[in-house]
Amino acid sequence: DGPPRLTPEQRGTIRGSTYINNFLHFRVTLTQWQPFSAERATRAEDTGRRLVNPNGHSSPFRVLWIGDSAGRNVALSIVPLPPDAPKDLKQLNDSMKKIAIRELALATEVSESEEPFLLGDAAHPFAGFRVASTIHGKQVVQSEQLTVINGFVMTLTVTGNSDQAISDALRSLKASLAWT
User: Fold this and answer.
1) What is the pTM of this model?
2) For the chain, how long is the longest CA-to-CA vector?
């Protein structure tokens, strides 16, 4: 069953080189980031199923998937928060961390840590974590960050090949993120 599908307004849209979400009151300038084409998204999902989790699936709540020239990518998901779900960011973060680690079914050398570089500000608090693992002999690092806005959990998952690559991507993303 699961949460209800998102409306077009809740999903947001890309206008020119900016992703705009008026429902959750933010935008992301995509200067450094390029939206994944449908073909690239399908290829990435197929690779994920082959190398990371054979039971992985496409999320209907992923509203934006972007990448940069350094090979890093960012997935933005927006999920309606079930009424019985915890509202506390730390509790939600702990739950998301368990899910993220479980999704790395074929990965080895999995380790997790607190996210040292959060995207939020005083008015928009975020919680987050990093997961490092080895997938098919290569290091992969992910930062997952989340916040709750208007009864929705917004998650940003940044993937790269090192902690430094993730930190650089997060700095770029934070500079591109504006609350409206």
Assistant:
1) 0.91
2) 42
Is it the case that residue 53 has pLDDT exceeding 80? no
What's at 88, amino acid-wise? D
Nearest CA to 49 out of 111, 132, 136 is that of 136
Three-state secondary structure string covering the chain? CCCCCCCHHHHCEEECCEEEECCCCEEEECCCCEECCHHHHHHHHHHHHHHCCCCCCCCCCEEEEEECCCCCEEEEEEEECCCCCCCCHHHHHHHHHHHHHHHCCCCEEEEEEECCCCCCECCECCEEEEEEEEECCEEEEEEEEEEEECCEEEEEEEEECCHHHHHHHHHHHHHHEEEC
Rounded CA gap, 20 and 178, in Å?
10
Beta-carbon neighbour count of residue 68 at 10 Å?
19
Mean pLDDT of the chain: 91
Q: Strands 18-21, 26-29: parallel, antiparallel or unpaired by DSSP?
A: antiparallel
For residue 89 the two structure tokens come to 């960011």
Tell me phi and psi for residue 62, to 5 degrees.
-75, 120
